[in-house]
Fold this sequence. Notes:
Blueprint lengths: L7 E2 L8 E2 L6 E2 L5 H4 L7 H7 L6 H9 L7 H12 L8 H19 L4 H20 L3 H18 L3 H9 L20 H6 L2
Antiparallel strand pairs: 1-2, 2-3
Helix pairs in contact: 3-5, 3-6, 4-6, 5-7, 6-7
Amino acid sequence: MADWCNHFELGGIFSSNTCNVSGRRENIPSTYEYYCKNGGYKCPWYEQAYGSSSGCFITTVTCSILGKEDNDPVMDSLRAFRDGVLQNAEEYDSVLKLYDRVGPIISFKLFHDKDRNEKAAKLYSKLSEFAEIANKGNHNEAAKKYIMMTLRLVAEYSVEKEYRDIRDDDFGYKAGEFDRKVAGHGKKMTKTIENQ
């Protein structure tokens, strides 16, 4: 059975199928319907919304699964943490690289997990805790907890080899390519997922 994208809305006799990924219903071209039946994977609209998202990728997918709005307070707090803290200190480069290369792998696995609602609820609870810690100014603790959560998910989804290969290759960044000020936006997402 097809895993329909949760932004897909089936049309009626006199209306087209629509996509609500942008927050407004848009008619789906027939060439895009394959992506709707594949959970949104590789859909240009889906990737535009989540691949270049201003939110943390795992957080974005978690909130999407749970039906939370884009301005969810946890998502907003973690965006502020990324923009105001992680992107402004070299010590957090590894967190941003982990996010850009490993986050999409985990997010894709989570989105297609048969127990995704239950797992997303648990993740949201952890992300809420991280946001609260970050809001209190305990930045190192919040960053460490995020890394530990991601590594637990790497183990849970059995992608340790992929993680090690990416990590040992400096997360896929060539010399001089990494730009902290634009990191944390999933810029490596498409290439990472397509290689899975």
